[in-house]
Structure formats: C-alpha cells, structure tokens
Amino acid sequence: MASDDLSNLADSNDDDEKYGFTRPEMYKESLAGTVGAYDRHVFLCYKSPEAWPSRVEGSDSDLLPRLFSSAIKGRKDSIPLKTNLTIFEGREGTEFSDGDVLIFPEMIKYRGLKDSEVDSFVEDVLVNGKPWASGVEEVLTGSHVFVCSHGRRDRRCGVCGPVLIEKLKEEIESREWKDQVFVSPCSHIGGHKYAGNVIIYSPGPDGKIMGHCDRYGYVTPDDVPSLLDQHIGKGEIIEHLWRGQMGATAEEGGKVDKKKLANGDVKKSKKKPKESSTRSNKDDGAGCCQGANGFSCCKDGSLEQNGVGEEKKLKETVSGHEKKGLGKLSFCIGSLEQSEVLTAVAVASAVAAVAVAYSFYRRSG
C-alpha cells in the first residue's frame, strides 16, 4: 500500500475515533427531550454540504438562504406557527433542485424560489397560510429522511452524515423503496454532539397530506435497518435513539408514547405512489385519527358501535326524524328494541279489543 493511502487510512481511523460512531461521547446522554419546540419545518434546496459555510443562512455569499432566513426572522411575530429553516441538497438523480422549498407537516413543495420572490413567498405561504401566488403547490408523497451532514458547522456531522446517507440508500434500494423513501443531506438541525442526527417526515395515517416528524440521535449504520423497518415500515418509535417530535414541547418530547406512530404503511411493491395521498370518505371505520404529535388516537374501528358513540348517533337520528312530522311514528317503532315493539303491539291490540267490545255493547244495548 502506498504511503499516501496509509496516511489517508490513518486519518480516517482517527476521524472515526474522535468524530465518528466510536467517539467516547456516544450514548453518554439521554436523548428524549433534546429537541426544542417548533410547529413547522421549511427546507430550502441549495447547493451541497461541501459548499455550505458554517452559517449558511447568514452567509453574505449565499444570498438566497440569507434572504429566506432574514424574512422568516423578520416576520416571526406574524407567522402563526413557530418555523424552523434548514438547508438541504438535491443530489443528482433526485427530483429536487436549487430554490425548491419543502414544507412540513403540510408536506407540500414549491419549485424554483428566487431571491426577489422570498418576501412574497413568506407573506403568502408562511404568514397568511395561502398558496403562493407566484408558484404551483405540489404534494409530497412518501417518507422523507434528512441526515445532518453539515461538516463545516461541526466535524461530527461531517463524518457521520455521509456514511449514514450511503447506508440508507443501500438499504432502501435493497427493499425496493426508492420511490417511497427519499434521503437528503441537510444543514445544522441542532445537537451536534448527538450525531448522527436524522429527521424522518412521513404522511398521516389516513392518507391526508398532513404529516409528522420524529428526530433521532446517536444513529449508526447498524441502526439504519431498524429506522426503515421499524419506524417507517411499522410506525414504531426506536426509543433509545428518539430525541423528540415536531409539535411537542421539550417536556412532552421527553415522554415516549408507547402507541404506534401514524405511519407504517410503506408498500412492498415497486409501484410509484399516487400524486395525491388523500383518501375517499368512503373508507371503512378501521381508519385512525392523528393527534397533535402524530400518534394514532383510535383503539379500533368499532368505537361507534359501543357506548357514547352509539348514544350520540341515536340522539342525532331521533332529532332529525322528529322534524319530519308524519315520519315520526314509523321512526320510533323502527328504533325500538324488539321487546318494546312487542309490548306496544300488545297494548294496541288490547285497546282495539276494548274498543270493539264497547262498540258491540252499544249496539246490543
């Protein structure tokens, strides 16, 4: 082996020991609750990690990220949701290019934002919650995985991030999920000491575009199969790596909910998912709702067959029929239990018998 190769190998081993997955600080801290509270995450596609300065959102030489960051900070009192901005890369072979903007949990995308359009974009989309007047809103489908690879901000992310991305791509391809799970390197997301840092955004449980987010730390290449199979495939949190979730306070983020996550619906086929992830209202009752933190809040699909749900349903039905006048009697009989119907019939028969007897008595008298 040449001397240069030996030197590079030594440097690589040294990097791993100091900044990689075998560094001494790994697993020294509890991860749950290490994510600050926020409600929306905006990603701007811009160049590559190698080109990002330490503070890419504040760099004078990178106008678009700086303008975007300044506009969000300048309007923070007018933006109803606490919003984070992160830069990501659209590598060759992906559908993203510089200027594209992804917004979560709405799971929407706008293409080709320019420097001169930043203020109008922030005003329309982030402040007023309307579609951007100068662009076309597109729906994001599938799960989106972002890995912090911002090496100029912190060496640990620069060492761990690229390795995790390659492992994720390898495992995704082996599962034939390339059209359902998308991986991108991203800039600083907080918590360098927890590298590898990974964010996963997935669609809601009922197919609606509102998605949820979970952050993981201390992720190593050995954890990648679990992230894919357990988190994305089954919708289950990996507790020992879980840092928190969008939409939760730091205190709430420190509590791991034992329920399944809202996702867990990755298809095992090669077919590309539909552009729109909304479902028909004709779906059966087995679907679940999604809580504020992305968890399923339904125990089963038969809730309305019992207790309060049935009582409420009956009261609403009765109220509706009472307004129909002539249909009231038939409804009441139809909604009585069988024993009540039989009792009513018996009473009616007795009354009829008395009436007939009385009529016969009058005639005979």
Could you characterize what this model shows?
By secondary structure, the protein is an alpha+beta fold. The protein has nine helices and ten strands. A five-stranded mixed sheet has the order 2-1-3-4-5, with helices on one face. It has a five-stranded mixed sheet with strand order 7-6-8-9-10. A hairpin with a 3-residue loop joins β3 (101-104) and β4 (108-110). α1 packs across α4. It is globular. The relative contact order is 0.11.
Summarize the structure.
This protein is α+β, with helices and mostly antiparallel strands and 365 residues long. It is 34% helix and 13% strand.
Structural class: alpha+beta
Let me know the average pLDDT: 77
Strand order of the largest sheet: 2-1-3-4-5
How many beta-strand elements? 10
Distance between the termini: 130 Å
Stretches where pLDDT is under 50 for at least 5 consecutive residues are: 1-10, 269-339
Secondary structure elements and pairings:
Elements (H helix, E strand, L loop, with lengths): L2 H17 L20 E6 L17 H12 L8 E6 L12 E4 L3 E3 L7 H10 L10 E2 L3 E6 L6 H20 L6 E6 L11 E5 L9 E5 L7 H10 L8 E4 L4 H4 L53 H16 L5 H8 L2 H27 L1
Parallel strand pairs: 1-2, 6-7
Antiparallel strand pairs: 1-3, 3-4, 4-5, 6-8, 8-9, 9-10
Helix pairs in contact: 1-4, 2-3
What are the key terms here?
about 375 residues; alpha+beta; about 35% helix; globular
